[in-house]
Amino acid sequence: MSFTATEENYIKAIYHLQQRLGKAGTTVLAEAMQTRPATVTDMLKKLEAKKLLHYRRYKGFSLTESGNRLALLIIRKHRLWEYFLVHKLGFNWDEVHYMAEELEHISSRELITRLDQFLGKPAFDPHGDPIPDGKGRLKTIRQMNLMTLPLKKILVVQSVRNQSADMLELLNHYHIGIGTKLKVLRRFAFDGSAEIKVDKQPITIISNQVAQNVYCCI
Amino acid sequence: MSFTATEENYIKAIYHLQQRLGKAGTTVLAEAMQTRPATVTDMLKKLEAKKLLHYRRYKGFSLTESGNRLALLIIRKHRLWEYFLVHKLGFNWDEVHYMAEELEHISSRELITRLDQFLGKPAFDPHGDPIPDGKGRLKTIRQMNLMTLPLKKILVVQSVRNQSADMLELLNHYHIGIGTKLKVLRRFAFDGSAEIKVDKQPITIISNQVAQNVYCCI
DNA sequence: ACATATTTTTAGATTAGTCTAAATTTTATG
DNA sequence: CATAAAATTTAGACTAATCTAAAAATATGT
C-alpha cells in the first residue's frame, strides 16, 4: 500500500496531536493542517478506507495500528534527514525543517535504512527529539547542554558538567539546580550568551561558558 | 515561480528528447511520459503559459531559455543525488535511478548547493553522465562507443547510454563499470559482436547491442 | 494532386484534494 | 431539559492531471 504526501501529512499530524493533546478533533486537525474542517472530514473517510484510522462520524477518530506504524516511519524519515542536513551538510538546526518536510515523503525504505547506517544510527535529531528506530521504538530521554537544545521548549536540568565551587556559586545565584525547569528564549551569536527564563525567576542572561555546562532533557 | 513534479518531468523529458533526437513531437513525448498525446497537448499549453515552452499548435514546440535552465537544474539534482546514493550510501549504480527520480523534485536550491559541496563538486554521476554545475554548464568529454573506437588500445569506460536495469545487470556480469579499463581485440562483421579484454578479467565477447551503448575515451 | 494515413488537438468525463455554504449532530447553558 | 453554541458532516463546485472518442490539420504515396 502506498500513500500520497498529503495522506502522510495527515497521519503525522494526527499522531502528534494524539501525543500532545491525548485526542484530536476535526477542527483542531484542520488548524494543524492549515485547511478547513470539511476537507478534514473527506480525508478522514479516505484514511479509514485505507485502514489507517478508526473513524465514526461525529464521534471521533484515532490511528489504527498500521496508522501508528506509518506515523512513526514518517517521523523517522523526517528526523534522520534533519540529522543529515545538520551534521553532514552543515545547516543550522533552525533551517532544516521545511526541507525535511519534503524529504520525509521519499518512499524507498532501503534508502532510509542506509541513511540511518551512514549517520551512525542516531537516537536523537538536532532538535533533541528522539528518532524512531527501524521498528518504531523511541528513546525517551536525551541530555544536551543549553547551547544545543531548542529554543522555547521547557527543559529540565539533569546534570552540570563542571561542578567547581565557582560554577555552583553562580548556578545558585541563577536559582538553577538539578530538576529546575527553564526555557532558552534567545541566543546571541556575538558571544554565545543566552537569554533564559528560569522557573519563577525573572528573565536573565547566562554566558556561553555556563550554558555549555548545563545539561537538560526536554 | 514554482513547478509541480509532473511539470518538471515533462520539461526534463523534452530536454532529453531534444538532445537525443534533435526535436520532439507530441506522440513521441507521450510515449516518453507513458501517457496519451491528448494529455501531452494539455500540458504543453500549461508549460507555454508558464513560459517554459515555445508552442504553436500542430507545428511543434521547444524549450525556452528558462525551460532549458529548469531542465538542467533538474538533471543536476538527479545526478548529484545519484552520486550521493552510490558514493555515500553504498548503493550500486543500477539501483539508484528511481530514488533519484523522487529526490530530484526536492525544491531547496541551498540544499543542492550544499550537497554539491559535500560531495566535492563532482563533474560526472555514477553512470558517467556529466553533472551540470551551478550555472548549468556541462563538462563534455569526447566519447565514442565501442563500435567506433580503435582496436587494441586501452580504453576507459566513461558512460553507458542505455541505463535500463537489464543493461546494468549485464555490465555487472562483465565487470564493466565507469572507469573500467578495457581493450577491443577484434570485431566480427557477421553480427557486430566484439571480443574484449576487461581489466583483470578473461577475454570475452560482447554483443553489438552492448558495444553500441558503452562509451569510452582513449 | 488528391485520397489516405498519421499526427495533433478538442470535447467531455474522471479522480484527488481542496473550497464555501448549508445542514446535522453533539455539547453546553440558562 | 429546551435551546443556543460549537463541532462536524454533507452538498455542490473548482483545479490539476489524466483518460477516451472524435474532429481537425498535416504528411505521404502513387
**Tally of structural domains of chain A:** 3
Find the CATH superfamily of the largest domain in chain A. Ferrous iron transport protein A (FeoA)
Radius of gyration of chain A: 20 Å
Chain-averaged pLDDT of chain A: 89
CATH topology (level 3) name of the largest domain in chain A: SH3 type barrels
Largest Cβ-defined interface: A-B, 18 and 19 residues
Continuous helix count of chain A: 8
* Through-space gap between termini of chain A: 35 Å
Beta-strand segment tally of chain A: 8
Any key phrases for this structure?
elongated, six-stranded antiparallel sheet, alpha+beta, two-stranded antiparallel ribbon, 218 residues, Arc Repressor Mutant, subunit A, DNA-binding, SH3 type barrels, homodimer, 8 helices, 3 domains
What does it look like?
The first copy, chain A, is α+β, with helices and mostly antiparallel strands and 218 residues long. Chain A folds into three domains: 5-63, Winged helix-like DNA-binding domain superfamily/Winged helix DNA-binding domain (Arc Repressor Mutant, subunit A, Orthogonal Bundle), CATH 1.10.10; 73-140, Winged helix-like DNA-binding domain superfamily/Winged helix DNA-binding domain (Arc Repressor Mutant, subunit A, Orthogonal Bundle); 144-217, SH3 type barrels (Roll), CATH 2.30.30.90. The first copy, chain A, contains eight helices and eight strands, in the order H-H-H-E-E-H-H-H-E-E-H-E-E-E-H-E. In chain A, the strands form two sheets. A six-stranded antiparallel beta sheet of chain A has the order 3-8-4-5-6-7. In chain A, strands 1-2 form a two-stranded antiparallel sheet. In chain A, strand 6 (194-198) and strand 7 form a beta hairpin. In chain A, helix 1 (5-21) packs across helix 4. The mean pLDDT of chain A is 89. The first copy, chain A, binds a DNA duplex (30 and 30 nucleotides) through helix 3.
